[in-house]
Structures are given as structure tokens and as C-alpha cells.
Amino acid sequence: MNVSGRVDKTKLFKSLERLKSRSKHRLSEKHPRAVGYLQLKGIEAGKIRQHATRLLASGALATSLVLLPPPSAVMKEIASAVESTLPVENLRSKLREELSFLPDQPRRLTEGEERRLTAVFRQYLGINAVAQLEGNRLNQSFGYIGAEQHLPRFPGDSAGMHDEAVMAGITPGLGAWGYFAPSRSALTNEQIKQEKYYVAVQTLYLPDWNARFRYLRDWYKYRKVVVVNPENGLAVAAVVADAGPADWTGKHFGGSPEVMAELHLNVGKQKGAVVLFFVDDQNNEVPLGLLAYDWAQMMETK
Amino acid sequence: MKGKIFYDHLVRLEEVLVEFKQGELTLEERETVLDIADETVHTRVLKVILDRLPLHRHRLFLNRFHKEPYRAELMDFLKRETGVNIEKLIEIEAEKVKRRLRILIAGSRKYRDKQTR
What is the ipTM of this complex? Predict the structure, then answer.
């Protein structure tokens, strides 16, 4: 009995091709954006080896090996890759164009205008940002933001203990929701980021603030928002950590020193018109800080 | 010379070539088998990675991956961002592909003279 048959090559190659195309199909179905992103870069998902070989052949690898930065530098580079490599200026200018329908002076936006902003933010920033979330909305979603000081994160905190914008100082009182942590040792990295990228919103002027105080107090505490400067297209994800400013100031929102710096509003009067929307981010996937622009994603969604 | 991918050490695709007998495939055919298998593995491994990586990190990863697919630091990034033993998951996925390949190779054999005594 002959048990060692010969390979039917036609059958084998057909089966292999079928396996390959099934795998490709599954990837495309589950991660269409990722596949689209690679395609924009001129790479088919499965053909990363050919791409790597081309890099090698073109000498890119040899060059980068000669100039290989130390691992820590590489990780820093990875962390800021999107900002440093994508044509941010192009995107910003496109986003600015899209936001040019906003009036010169802040006012209450119409529902249609707010919907339009939601679509623009989804397209350009890849986030779901809305003026009204879970039935809650601020009196204004387009208003003036002014500079705030650092908030005390724990008893005994001082401006000098903050790693950035020390000169901005620290508020003498607590934020509307008190300390972020009971002590310095209990302060987490997440809380450090929350204080770094916080905003103050006028919860005190909400029509239902008193009637639904407990619910709203909890709902707004560290609520994630996006703040967009329509003048330059810069966008920052932040959390609500304080209440204010008072109406008489002519401002509608307050921004931490870092928020104002990221929006390029930390100069002159330290005030500017911004859009402030809630971020629908139940899985906590949108990182706090300057939002990375992604030209490729914008192209994908067009 | 072929370009390196940062998870190559976890895949070891050449292992499936032992399923072929000496001289059964030409060098060119062996290369073709490996190329198709390689593409399959990359697609499947990429899916495993993206399944586990938080959505907001996809673009960051893909951006670095397409620029420097050989970077060992990409694995550190994945370990940190996925919070799972991603190396093990890649290894398991590669094993699944290799097992499938072995089945396909065995299934494509013609058994002549089965009843020959």
C-alpha cells in the first residue's frame, strides 16, 4: 500500500490561495479603517513583508540602523508619531475651513449647527463629540474660554509641584469637585492628566442645576469634553473639573494652563472663542491632551 | 534578502516545509508556498493585534509599523497598550496557521495504488 502520495500542486496552491483570501476578508471586515489606512500608505495588509523588503532595498533600513536612536527615544517617538509625521497643517487648514460657518461672536448654536460640528469632529478628529449627551447640555457649546490656574490635586499641593506651566499658579480654593486624590502618594497618573487637561464649565447656570443637583454634580464630575479652537483648528480632550466662570467675566468656559497652551490661547488676553462638546467615550479610548490629527483617516471617511 | 518583521521570531513559518519530501517542490514552488503562507500569517497576526489594541492606538501603531516594520520596540508598545501577553497570542495564531497549512498539504496529496498489495 502506497501511503506517501504526491502533492497535487494545483490543488495545494488553490487551497493556499483560498486560505489567504479568507484571512484577508476577515481582517477587512473587522478592521476596515486599518486596512484602508495601510492602503493609503501603499501597502496591502498581507504584503508587509514585501514592503519591509522594499525598505531594506531602498536603503532606508541601512540609514536608520546607522542613526538608530536609543530605545527610550524610540518609544517617545512612537508616542508622538501621529503628531510628528502627519501633514497636520493641511488638516488644520481643512478643519478651519469647515468651522468657518461659525459666527464671529459666540452665541447659542442651532441644533443644525451642532449636528454639523459633530459630523466635522467625527470626520477630522475621529471622535464622537456632541453638544447634548444623555439629555444633558450646557447653556452654550460655543463660547469664550479664559485661562484658569492649576487646581490643587491633593492637600498640600502647590504650583511648583506641577510639572508644567508652574508660572500660572494654583487656585487658593479647591476645584468644584474637591481634591483629585486624598494625598500625594495616592495621586494616580490618570488624575495628574485630569488636572493637567481640565476645563471649568458653567454648571451653576444650568436651568436644572438646583432641581437635579445630585445627579448633575455626579454627571459632570470629570466628564470628558473636547475643546476646539476654530481659529487654528487645534483640539484638546479634557475633563470638567471646576465650575465657572461667572457670567460677568464675559467668558463661558475656563481652561487649565495646559489646555490654553495646547489651543495656543495662552498669550495676550488668554481668551478666545472655542467650541466645547461632550465626548461620547464610554470605553475611555480618547486620550486627554492635544488630539492627534489624522490626515489618512480623513481621506478614508471621504 | 527579505525584510524583517518585528514578530518573525514568533512565527517560524519554515517549519511547514518539512511536510514536503525532498525534491517534491522546486525551489520556486517552495518560495511561492512560503510567500502565500507568509501573507496569510501577516493578515491573521495583524487582526490579532488590532483586536487587542485599543481603537485609539490603531493609527499610531500602523503608522510606526509601516515605517519600521522590523522595530523590536513595536512589541514593547503592544505589550504596554494591549495589557495582554501579545507575544503568546501571536505565537498561537501562527501555530494555527501552520496547523492549517499542514492539513492543506496533507489534503492535497494524491494517494496512488491505495489498494496495491
Answer: 0.89
